[in-house]
Structures are given as C-alpha cells and as structure tokens.
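During data preparation, we tokenized the protein backbone, and the record follows.
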Amino acid sequence: MRLPSLSEIETAAETVYAAMPPTPQYAWPLLAERAGCEVWVKHENHTPTGAFKVRGGLVYMADLAARGTKGPGVITATRGNHGQSVAFAAARYGLRAVVCVPEGNSVEKNAAMRAFGGELVVEGHDFQAAREHAEALAAREGLHMLPSYDERLVRGVASYPLELFRAVPDLDRVYVPVGLGSGITATLAARDALGLKTEVVGVVAEGAPAYQLSLEAGKPVSTEQAVTVADGMACRVPEPEAVEVLLKGVTEIVALSEDEITGAMRALYTDCHNVAEGAGAAALGACLKQKERNRGRKVAVMLCGGNVDAALFRDVLGQV
C-alpha cells in the first residue's frame, strides 16, 4: 500500500478538524522519572470518541459522501474504538451504521457505539469471527463493508502523528500499539512525509503476537487465538498491506505480558491522572520494558485510547 503524502495527510487533517480539535502532547515529569528518559504522551484519549480511530472514520465517510456512495448504509466489525469512529462519522453524514462485535465485548464500548447511533450486532467468539459475519451481512443486505484497515483510514489517522512530530520533531523513538495496523502505518507515513529519522517501534500483547510473528517471518502470520486485556490489540489475522508497510519501516515489535500492560495502565493513572485502556497503555509499557535502551533519550508513546470498562479498570488499579 502506498503511504499518503504530506499534502494528503494535511488535507485529511482539515476534514478531521471540522469535527474535533488537535489533541495535546505533554511531557510528564513523573513518567520521565519512572522511565529514565523524557517521555511525551500523545493524548488520543482526548478525542470525541476517546480514541484515535475517529480520525480515520471521518475521512473515510467524507470520501463516501464525496463519491455519492450512500445506499442502505455501512457495516463494519470492531472491538469498539473503530465502531465508535464509524458510528460517530456516519451520523455526521446521515448514514446508517451497523456495527458487528464479538460476544463478551466491552459493555461500555458497546453502549458508546449505540449512543453514537450505531446498530449493534453481536456475533462470533472473537474479532475475526465478527468480521466474517459483517462481510456476510454486507453481501446479503447491500451494505457498504467498511474495513478496519484502508488507505483512507490511514490518511485520517496520520493527522495525529503529524501533530506530534511537528510539536516534538527531535524524538529519538516513538512506540505505537498495533491492532490491525492503521495507527502504526499512519505514524510511519507522517514520519516519512516530514523526512524525520525517528525510530518507530510497534507494540503487541504476548497473547496476540500476530504482527510480531509476521515481522520476524517477513510475511503475514496468523495465530489460532488472540487473548489479551488489551482488546484493541486482539488481532489473530494480520492485514497483508499493513505487514508490507511495517517490514519496510518499523525498527522492531515489542511483545508485552498482561502484567506489563496493566502496570502501564496504572502508571498512566498515577503519573498523569489519565485513564488508558490496555492498548492505550501498551506504548508506555514497551517504553518501560526497554528502559535501559531509552535512558537519556527523548521518547514518545501513543496513548491511543482510554475506553476501558469501569469494572476492569477498578480491578487493574487494585492490583499490586
């Protein structure tokens, strides 16, 4: 897949900013003490949907509207943040949005998708099964199947690393959680568009290592399951186009244990009083895991989302 150019990202950003302002990036001193380096946090937990995905949904839906593609509506599959993005953006353009989620999905993410206008369909034991059900429904009902990974989504999402790199252009390394790949490929696009040398490091969960295995093998590698508290990274079938981009531009992919993910969730709360879901905390978890490598350097972590169920977050905060 061709990565978007600087002018394409800037044009996408204009679409995004019609619905929301840029998000902040802050260097938190307590995080610096914990990590042994200067740590900048990109706060994508401060968007209207509480996650970075909304940027891609807005650009994708604007493209559909410009093409006059409406029909009976759009359908997608999600664990939550992508679905909120689609529902939020579809409502702005007067489109029906059907969202398929797996059984046992986040209660509060489900509620948010409904609140934004999404019609929720619960089907399948994991994201991949929900995705296959969404594809079948799209064919049966004539709905537009909106993917979780697409050039238009990447173009919109790239507006957030562009903000970060322009605010802090001398970063040595940036950590990005990997779900299906839109966030990390967008970060590579923004870095390359600006001609920067910042290392981009991907982050996965040990229980969902498909992208780490793919990077090691040099080709897409699927797993039998993807089980992790970080539902936004629970991918077992990687996107071939995303793998292709990562192979060319990512320094490495770090895998985190569940304890490392939940530890980072607690650290973000105690050190900067921000709520992060598992995927949202994963970048910090990887930064802390590589503490010795980062000592004395300037590092950024993508807090990609803060949509965690209250009951789960209460349990995480109570862990020692």
Remarks:
- The CA atoms of residues 264 and 315 lie 14 Å apart.
